[in-house]
Amino acid sequence: MSPAAAEPSEGSLLLDDQLCFALYAASRAVTARYRPLLDELGLTYPQYLVMLVLWEQDSISVRDLGAALQLESSTLSPLLKRLEANGLLRRERRVDDERSVALRLTEGGHRLRERAGQVPLAIGDAMGLTPEQDTLAKQLLRLITANVTD
Amino acid sequence: MSPAAAEPSEGSLLLDDQLCFALYAASRAVTARYRPLLDELGLTYPQYLVMLVLWEQDSISVRDLGAALQLESSTLSPLLKRLEANGLLRRERRVDDERSVALRLTEGGHRLRERAGQVPLAIGDAMGLTPEQDTLAKQLLRLITANVTD
DNA sequence: CACGTATTAGTTGTGTGCGATTTAATCGTG
DNA sequence: CACGATTAAATCGCACACAACTAATACGTG
């Protein structure tokens, strides 16, 4: 920090004072960094996040997937259709509750997990934070998310 | 932090270990928080960011605006057309370099600044960070952005 | 068990984001 | 000054994101 820097942070309309812009820019920059890696897997970034959830817990409902990713069904439905068209998962109506759709990985969906294993390391490396900074950043981001949500 | 928490952070494929997801979720949550406030101004969130830049520096080129926001012309061109259609700015070809387009606020565009004045306080309030946390978060996010941008 | 309410996915419409390409204008080097 | 390289915007195609709405199913209470 330059010692003589003014502190107009509160209520300023200057772009560079705004935490919200730092957040928005960082999010897009990180996604851009993922893009070439995920291209090789045939995934977009949101599709990759869906696959993370499914590798963790197969046969999840669209509803629970949306809760995990904080995404609406209007976002997930077309995305899941693309993953199904690409042969990574199947969508099946639950027999016990036909309102619900279970997402089940195909063989190809499971196999992709091995190829994805390198991705988090590569990204973590690119971010270049110390473990302490990484933990701190996650804590702050979760605090912001929690405070801002309702 | 729970003291006994394992540290599988490096190389984990668990969604909740990933800084990238915390970032993505926080960015969307903050944007969602802005939405009702910006609705009253007739702006979307990216449009609001454009207006922040223009209030700071009028008569900027599309190129420099893109550099400030880290957005491509393919994103900005349609967005700027909407702002022009809503009467907030005009786009004029530069006389000294006809490749370039200068963005100039209209009277209405300037007037909107007063109504937008409350927005940063309201958002800062909702985020609920201490000034120290706010500064720290901005530093970490800028570090990530810089590291990740080749 | 009938019927109003709630829940779950999906559809539609609008607005980003970005890669690839296009068009027009300017620059640089011989 | 000629002409290939570069630059600035815009266009196109695709994939999110989300609000508003719809359709189908399940639930709960009288």
Automatic annotation (TrEMBL), chains A, B:
Q: Which Pfam families does UniProt cross-reference here?
A: Staph_reg_Sar_Rot
Report the domain of life of the source organism: Bacteria
Q: Provide the Gene Ontology terms for cellular component.
A: cytoplasm
Principal localization?
cytoplasm
List UniProt keywords, sorted A-Z.
Answer: Cytoplasm, DNA-binding, Transcription, Transcription regulation
Tagged with keyword Transcription = yes
What is the designated name of this protein?
MarR family transcriptional regulator
- What is the scientific name of the source organism? Streptomyces guryensis
